Amino acid sequence: MAFIPYGRQYVDDDDVAAVVKVLRGDWLTQGPNVADFEEAFAQKVGARFAVSFSNGTAALHGAYYAAGVGKGDQVITSPMTFVATANAARFLGAHVRFVDVDPSTLCMDPDRLQEMVSPRTKVIAPVSYAGYPVPLDKITAVARSVGAIVVEDACHALGASREGGMVGAQADMTVFSFHPVKHITTAEGGMVTTNNEELARRLRLFRSHGVERDPSRMSRNDGPWYYEMVDLGYNYRLTDIQCALGLSQLAKLDRFVQARRRIARRYAELLKGVPPVGLPPHHPGHSYHLYPIRVPAERRRDVFEALRREGVGVQVHYLPVHMHPYYKDLYGIPDDDLPNALNYYRETISLPMFPSLEDHEQDRVVELLSSYLG
């Protein structure tokens, strides 16, 4: 039987043609497709500005920089995320603190956040885990009480929505990823959206060497060729080739999200007959980057390995960040200090979830899961 991965990109002839057109044109990078992609993306999610980056981690790094994060500052996030959400703060010399997840959402528990903030808190970075749009109202209120900026890690949640519109316009900055298993792909890529013009300016500065070209912001101006490096930035640019792919993919986003929601509904129906399985939290605006179920902890490894032997590419998302050796050595947080994240990690398995997943493949996944849990 053919291997079924947990995630897979969907690239069609339109995507290929869009990339070929750029390859045959004059601009491979720093050309018009970058601005076009950013403008279309901002319009799609309802934000004023969108700034592209070479990958999601670079986008997080840029967002924290734009927020003014520096040495000794504090960034608060969720332990249930990929390590990049925390690592990007460490790149800037900040300390990371973790707030346990709410079992009903698997996102940051806003009721536990207040006790974690301090005058050193510069950023609160909630994660819209698996595509569930993290509730922001309480988190934003806590952030405002200490003058912190909210950076939503929505790398799992493109196309998701919450009260007030699509994810991407409610936080001070929202970060997305275009890795191949995400909702749309540019092979690698990321984006930060914001409604704040100054934050957008700082994002652009950071992603291109800290170079300033606006004469009004330079110390001098020797001519139309002139530019100045005003801060220590990076080369985190996304190419025109990738942006052409992104534009083509963005046109299919609604279809991709609808497919993921249909697959999620079907999983929920099929898994009704498998009593030991816990389903992921439901939200009408969920965009289902992942479909993580829960199984009895004592059986998780055996079930995982059995499904892999049968050609089903299940995965585990994630080892809580505070449990990785780097963070254990740095902060010494006991595993059970964040019990909801720990318990969830011990029980979770991510089932295959991607727009082109066929019904017969989904049936096979559930039949095998049922046979090993029965």
Automatic annotation (TrEMBL):
The lineage of its organism: Bacteria, Thermotogati, Synergistota, Synergistia, Synergistales. One of its GO terms (molecular function) is transaminase activity. Keywords: Aminotransferase, Pyridoxal phosphate, Transferase. The keyword Cytoplasm does not apply. The active site is at K182 (proton acceptor). Belongs to the DegT/DnrJ/EryC1 family. Gene3D superfamilies: Aspartate Aminotransferase, domain 1 (3.90.1150.10), Type I PLP-dependent aspartate aminotransferase-like (Major domain) (3.40.640.10). One of its GO terms (biological process) is polysaccharide biosynthetic process. It holds the Pfam family DegT_DnrJ_EryC1. This is DegT/DnrJ/EryC1/StrS aminotransferase. The modification N6-(pyridoxal phosphate)lysine is found at K182.
